[in-house]
Amino acid sequence: MIPKSGHWSETYAVRPGTRFSLKRCNPRAPGGFASREQARSQAAADAEAIDRLQDRLYAEGRHALLVVLQGIDCSGKDGTVRAVFNSCGPIGVRIAAFKAPTPDELAHDFLWRVHRACPPKGFIGIFNRSHYEDVLVAKVRQLASPKTIEQRYDQINAFEALLSASGTRILKFMLNISKQEQAERLRERIATPEKRWKFNPADLEDRKLWNDYMRAYEIAIRRCSTQHAPWHVIPADHNWVRNAIIARIVRETLEEMDPQYPKPKDWNPAKIRVV
Amino acid sequence: MIPKSGHWSETYAVRPGTRFSLKRCNPRAPGGFASREQARSQAAADAEAIDRLQDRLYAEGRHALLVVLQGIDCSGKDGTVRAVFNSCGPIGVRIAAFKAPTPDELAHDFLWRVHRACPPKGFIGIFNRSHYEDVLVAKVRQLASPKTIEQRYDQINAFEALLSASGTRILKFMLNISKQEQAERLRERIATPEKRWKFNPADLEDRKLWNDYMRAYEIAIRRCSTQHAPWHVIPADHNWVRNAIIARIVRETLEEMDPQYPKPKDWNPAKIRVV
Prior knowledge:
five-stranded parallel beta sheet
C-alpha cells in the first residue's frame, strides 16, 4: 500500500475551474526521479500491483476503471500501455483505439462509438485516443462548426458524469511532449525500417498545426477536468518518467477504490467436498 | 527462428480423419522437458518472440491468428493466456470469453456471437471457450437436440473454412487435465480466499459428468480437426508443460506465417524532412 494515497494524482491533476496553462507544464520534467533506473523499477513494481488490484476489481465486479490516453503523434500512448498494463495482460484490460470515424459511426452522435467501447464492471478500459479527438482534431481541422465544438465540452462532461455515477472511475492523461521531442521521434521512426510503417506523411501536416493543437488541448483540459474525471498532464519527453507517473496514479486510484474479493454467498467452503 | 518449423505442432495436432482417442493422451506427460525451469524459460523466450511477431502481423495487416482455448473447469485457460500472451499485452491481443449465451445471442444462430468476436487482420484473437461449447456442454446437458448437435460439426467446419480462406489462421487447443488434477485444483480454489470467488458449486455437477464431457470432446475433436483448423491436445496437468508447448506452437505458426513490415508505398524515407 502506498502511504500517501492521492499524492501523485494531485501533483499532476488539473484542478477543476482553474485557468490551466499548458505552457507552465514542462514536458522534460524529471518527475522527481533520481535516475531512469529508479523510475523504471518503480513503474515495474506498480504494474505488478495494478495486476493484483485488477484481479480484485474483476472478482468484486462492481466497478470499472477507464483510462483515457491522449497525446499528439509519437507522444507514447502505446508505450504507456505496454509499461503499465502488460502485467495485467489482455484478460482484464480492454483497449479501444479510436481512429477516423466510419460512415456508420458518423451517422450517430460523436459519443455513440465511445459509449459502446466503455469497460464493463470488473474491467480496466483504455482509450487510445478518445472522444476528445472530437474537440481536438475536429476543432483544429474544422471538422465541426465552432458552435458544435462548444456544445461538446458540456456533452462530454455530462457523459463522463453518467459513467462515474454508474460505477466507472475515470482517469484522463495528456501525454505532454515537446515539439523538439516529437521531431526526434519522427526522425527515428522514419529512419528505422521496423518503425517506418507507423509513419504517415500526413502526420507532418498536423505537426505544422502544433500551436493550434496545444491551444485545443488547453481548452479541452480546462473545460473538462472535473472532480469525477480529472485530466492529468504528464511530462512525456522521457518515457521512463511518463510510465512511472502514470503507473503510480493508476495504482493509487485502484488502491483508493479498494476492491474486495467477494465472500461465498450461498455455499460454505468448509462443507464442500470434491470427490 | 526455430529450426524445425512445424515440428511441435505436428506432435500434438490431431490428424484429420483419424479415429482419435483421448485415452491415448496422457495429461501428465512431461512434454520432453528436462525440468520445469527449462520449460518455463523456453515459454518465456517464446512469449517474447510472439510479441515481436505480433508487431509484424499488425504492421503487415493482412492476416489474423485465432487461438481457441477449450478445457474443463480448472484446466488453465487463463493461466495459458497470461504465460503466452501477456508479453504481447492488450494492444495486439483480443480476448473473447464465451459464457452462457444472452437472450439476444440465443435469438441468433450459435455462430453469430462467435463471428462478431473474430480478430480483425493484424490481431491475435483468443477464444476463452468458444463455439465448441455448443457441441460440448450443449451435448452433455442436452441443451439442443441430437440432430442439431450433429449438424453443428459440419457448420463449424464450414465456418472455420471461411475464416481460414479469408486470412485467419486458426489454432485450437484442448487443455487436457486428469480428473485427479481437477480435484486438486478445485480443492485449492475452495481453500484459498482469493480464489474462492472463481468457484461455483454447480461446477461439481459438471464434474460428475466427467466421462460424458470427455466423450463429447473426443467426438468434437475427431469431427472438427481439419487441415486449416487443427485441434491440438495438450498435456495440462503440469502448467509449465502446457504453457511451453502452446507457446512453441503459436510461435512456430507465426514464424510460418512470416509477416513482413510493409515498405512505404507513396513516400521516400530519404526525402522526408521533419522540421
